[in-house]
């Protein structure tokens, strides 16, 4: 898919421990139903974690997400009324939707390029970075050992507004979501921070990934409870319009 979508949405729901069986059932049943929602080009249901280790202990069993690529904003407006949207709303204690416009995308997800080939462009407000990878089983241990220094550096990075881990499965299929005050802060961490730069340099030689994707988006809007995203900065740091405490 080379066409750049006008809108990508990230829905994130916070649930309670008591509804864990229902959430797990939704994760099993709604994967195909999400892709069948009218106007959906590409959709993934995701578990989440703190992003500090990517192992089983990192999983957050009270937060779940859906990343969806839409044919149009009008199609996206129907998500809440869809069977998938209604089902998650029934078990969620809180939720938030992040509206995104692709800026850059490199790599593949499930053999596809879901965000097309965005041309980039100048952005002065918040941006979201998405990384996603499928680990080679024989290289997983060395990858997990390399994660903590990078995760610790990310937590303290200037300009970071929110960050958490995402995954399609408990092990081996994972990524990160991070929201930054502006593109300069993201670039400063990605390419100039020693720990992250060292991890980038190791990647080709280590052969950690069987498939990988990195994408950057303009944050167009944040609607709902941003605490669900582990928001770590005040609104005066440069949040998107519509963000609510």
From TrEMBL:
UniProt entry tagged with the keyword Oxidoreductase: yes
InterPro entries, A to Z: CrtA-like
Protein species of origin: Micromonospora deserti
Name of this protein: Monooxygenase
Domain of life: Bacteria
Taxonomic lineage: Bacteria, Bacillati, Actinomycetota, Actinomycetes, Micromonosporales
Keywords linked to the UniProt accession: Monooxygenase, Oxidoreductase
Gene Ontology terms for molecular function: monooxygenase activity
